[in-house]
Amino acid sequence: MGSSSRLVLQELGVGIVYSSALEPLLTMHPELIDVLEVEPQTTWIETQDPSVPYLVRPDLLQHIAALPGRKLVHSVGTPVGGSVRANAAQFPLLRQTVEKLDSPWASEHLSFNLTQDYFTGFFLPPRQTAAGLRLYIEAIQLLKKELGVPLAVETGVNYLRPRPDEIPDGEFIAAVVESADCGILLDLHNIYCNECNGRQSVAQFLSQLPLDRVWEVHLAGGFEMEGFWLDAHSGSIPEPLQRICREVIPALPNVKAIIFEIFSSFLPHFGLDATCRELEKIHEVWALRSTHSRAMPVTSPPRIPWPQSGVEPVEWEQALGRIVIGRDATGSLEKEFAADPGAHLIRALVREFRASMVVAVYRLSCRLLMLALGVGIFRALLEDFWSHTPPQQFAGTEADAFADYLVAKEIRVPQLQSILAFERASLATLRDGRPRIVSFNVDPLPMLRALADGVLLQDPGTPGEYEIEITEDGPIRIAGILPESASRNIPFH
Amino acid sequence: MVKEMTDAAVQRRRIAGPVRITIPARIAYNPGDLKKSIASIAEQIGHPRCFSGADCFFQMERQFALDRAGVATAVAGPDPTPWSVREPDPDPWKLSVGLSSGVKYNLDKVLTAVDKVIDLIGPHPCISGFDVLFRDELELIVVNEKLEAQRFGQQF
Q1: Same domain for B28 and B65?
Q2: Residue A473 at interface with chain B, using a CB cutoff of 8 Å
Q3: CB–CB of A42 and B41 under 8 A?
Q4: Are residues B12 and B31 located together in one domain of the fold?
Q5: Is the CB of A179 inside 8 Å of chain B's CB atoms?
Q6: Distance from CA of A16 to the nearest CA of B (A)
């Protein structure tokens, strides 16, 4: 593979980050989407089996490959801005995905999400020093080698205050990509967030970048929370950012794709029609691009001497990690982070993430708890769980840890343990395909239906011996009662 | 009607053993969700997306669970602040339980209070309908910091 700065990559066009909820858009408006960006790990299932830690459903990969448009792989599980390496079992699966989807390049985050002891539950900013630089270059080179395609690193959001002992953001990115000889995924909304939140301005940041290395651009919307502009992927691209795009895109001689990011949780509110309008705006910006790929001379300003710092990347990661997962500050660096409003914000965001993962995976059990005990008590349970257990990388694993916690607490909410056992069995069968049977001492169907509808059952239900057998596949069967007796209550669409 | 049918089902069970409902996992997981493709399930339990904002899913689910009509669209727009959360009407529940603040912030005391209230209303192995709603304000039962349950001003 030659120097990345001299690569001539294929032009892909305008696209969007794939989620299953967007599939109707692909059918209705294929003209708006030239490329789908796929985050492979979001479709993997963590197994807890060290010999096969991740399960990739081949039918799902096949399904995504068959969707219209080109595909780009955007990894979210092997970030290259930390000292602790991701599980190497991800590499062959990522490479398989790159090959299956024929992705002309891949991208990853110049952030970290893992310390020596736990996942942080959030992409966190790297240590921007010469020592950090050396580590991240190694990580990028390893990932490039494992994936077998050119690699671009994403410019990240950083909610922390700027520090005098770190290399300025743009200059740091420039040093990383030039030393590692890779591309840049320029996330303009991240950079816009950084400017809004008191870090470098977009103009200053871009003035320090080798713009000829920008292969791809990310755009998104956000909103304000606790005085910060969040990279929330919640909807419309802010108007000031649209103006910036119109100036910046023509100055990127090698940009090959612009991707719109919308987080699936916000789609029900933002809507597919509004998503189409954002894509139309991006097409207008795309039309402004330079049509001649070239290696632009890098016009970096003279570099100031890099600051010397005694804080090593490992120390940085452990201290920041501890604060954002909610541990008390002990050392001096932890106390510095504890005094940083940005770290407080991240801690709150990590908690919302964790809560969302749990309720998304064990939805009925969580609804039962919220309805029976109230949201305040449910939240207190979550807080207690978080104080004992660090975040997990995969939602299923995070939710399983919470389920273990609930079982250990022996909470006497009627039928909680049965509902939880039912949901756990369903998830386990989805993972391994083995059938399971869950017993109930009342008719479970009205209860399940009520919770599926978001209400608490008022009738205790008919006592008796009931079993739900969960199978890998096949038809719904009912034995022991007339099927039509159950059909009125059956909540399984 | 449903009850009569269910009674018939119980009769049948006595002859044929337990009632057995067999469901494929993809269908069993997330009852009531019409969009349960393998892709959507994998997204639910897989790695979170590239994202550095506030995940509104918990707030949406909280809203949904608190909305007796089951209308999730009541959540305010794409901007999740401020969240509009309507407390449920207590009418469908027979009892409401208020916890004094000293109890509310001590999880062990909260769980002990849950046990006490369940004992109070008469635990039954077959109970399914949970007819107690824990609320922050006083209603019919209150549990004080000594974990004494009181109802209508009378000590139990």
Answers
A1: no
A2: yes
A3: no
A4: yes
A5: no
A6: 13
Same domain flag for B34 and B17 = yes
Structure ipTM: 0.75
Provide the token pair at A424: 């756990």
When scoring B7, B15, B45 by the number of chain A Cβ atoms within 10 A, the one with the most, hence best to mutate, is: B45
* B28 → closest Cβ in A358, A470, A484: A470
For B7, name the nearest residue in chain A, comparing CA atoms only: A462
Asked if residue B147 and residue B99 are part of one domain, the reply reads yes
- What are the 10-residue block averages of pLDDT along chain A, 493 residues in total? 65 96 93 97 87 88 95 97 95 96 98 94 95 95 97 97 95 96 97 97 96 97 92 95 97 97 88 96 96 55 64 96 95 96 95 90 90 82 92 92 94 88 92 90 85 75 86 81 63 63
Residue intervals in chain A for CATH 3.20.20.150 = 4-286
Q: Is A96 on the interface with B (CB under 8 A)?
A: no
Buried b (16+ CB within 10 A) or exposed e, A213-247: bbbbbbbbbbbebeebbbbbbbbbbbeebbebbee
What distance in Å separates the CA atoms of residue A485 and residue A294, rounded to the nearest whole number? 71
* Model confidence pLDDT, tens digit, residues B26-70: 888 877 766 667 778 788 778 877 777 777 777 777 776 665 433
Nearest Cα neighbor of A57 from A493, A424, A473, A356 is: A473
d(CA A286, CA A280): 10
Please answer yes or no on whether A370 and B66 come within 8 Å at the CB atom: yes
> Measured between CA atoms, how close is A177 to chain B, in angstroms?
20
- Interface with A, mutate which of B11, B12, B19 (most A CBs under 10 A): B19
Topology adopted by domain A4-286 = TIM Barrel (3.20.20)
Restricting to A residues 300-329, those with a Cβ less than 8 Å away from any Cβ of B are none
Q: Which domain holds residue B39?
A: 1-47
Cβ neighbours of A79 in B, within 8 Å: none
By the CB < 8 Å criterion, does A401 face chain B?
no
Do the chains contact at A441 and B126, CB–CB below 8 Å? yes
Tell me which chain B residue has its CA closest to the CA of residue A157.
B52
